[in-house]
Design a protein that fits this description.
The protein is mainly β and about 290 residues long. It has no helices and 16 strands. InterPro entries: Ena_core (IPR025055).
Length: about 290
């Protein structure tokens, strides 16, 4: 018999840890409605400001694009004022546009002279508002573990949930624990970051909707994990439940997740075994 050395993982400690946490997905969506206003203008040449459009609704639009054309009239330029301030000037026979975050008023000033100035203006005003988009009442919500692209994955596949040890200043801290039989043992405090994605499916107006909800949380464990060991995590059970929560100003899908993991501290060691190499008998494999 020969002595053979092999490298194998040695398990220093092994615990089963159940974790419960929740995350949520907002059902309030931001929508934009665009109003289009187009008009011709003919104004008497003067140094006074002439109002073309004023917002009297009391709701200030979030943004807007103003376009002004100066077709003909006295002088060579037309001054354009947005919200009471000079925004730009337009040459005769030209058109200019400008987009601003807030639109409250549009005014122009024709140069001094005799006669009239003519042109066109248009406004594209973007009103933003929030609306609640609830799933169909008769449809059930489904949640599952997903990859970052939203594809459904098995919770038991490798790396379905990232389990990463968080480095601590000066390494893992020791803590003395009194066991039930009265012995005093020294364990190490291990900090773990766990993160992944939950997919949620439901129907809205008969159309299938898929949402991705990233999550992450931290946990502290006490393990026999001396310097040189590594932490390995394996999911042995997974479950999630999704419900709708609503009130006057909020609507969301709340996801409750339960994960049970086998967590080990281990390191590679070299062991010596007695044995010898063997060869298969001839004819055992027909391809040989």
């Amino acid at each position: 018999m020969n002595r053979i050395c092999v490298k194998v993982p040695k398990v220093y400690d092994w615990v089963t840890k159940e974790s419960e946490f929740n995350t949520c997905l907002s059902l309030i969506e931001c929508c934009t409605i665009t109003d289009q206003i187009c008009c011709d203008f003919m104004l008497e040449c003067s140094s006074d400001l002439n109002s073309l459009w004023v917002d009297n609704s009391g709701n200030i639009p979030r943004s807007g694009t103003i376009t002004v054309s100066f077709d003909e009239g006295c002088g060579d330029t037309l001054d354009v004022f947005i919200n009471g301030s000079l925004a730009f000037s337009v040459g005769k026979g030209q058109t200019r546009s400008q987009t601003v975050a807030f639109v409250r008023s549009l005014e122009v000033r024709c140069p001094n002279g005799i006669g009239f100035c003519k042109g066109k203006y248009s406004l594209s005003i973007h009103h933003k508002f929030e609306k609640i988009s609830l799933p169909d009442p008769v449809d059930s919500l489904e949640c599952y573990l997903a990859d970052p692209c939203g594809n459904r994955i098995s919770p038991f596949s490798p790396d379905s949930i990232d389990c990463i040890e968080i480095p601590q200043e000066n390494g893992r801290r020791n803590k003395k624990i009194l066991t039930p039989n009265g012995d005093m043992v020294t364990l190490q405090k291990v900090k773990l970051l766990k993160k992944g994605c939950i997919g949620v499916e439901f129907k809205r107006h008969g159309q299938l909707c898929k949402k991705l909800v990233p999550f992450e949380f931290t946990e502290d464990l006490l393990l026999c994990a001396p310097e040189g060991t590594r932490i390995e995590c394996e999911i042995i059970a997974f479950d999630c439940t999704a419900i709708i929560q609503t009130n006057d100003s909020c609507a969301r899908i709340e996801v409750f997740i339960n994960v049970c993991q086998s967590i080990q501290s281990e390191a590679d060691v070299i062991i010596s075994l007695e044995g010898e190499f063997c060869k298969p008998r001839l004819g055992l494999n027909s391809e040989c």
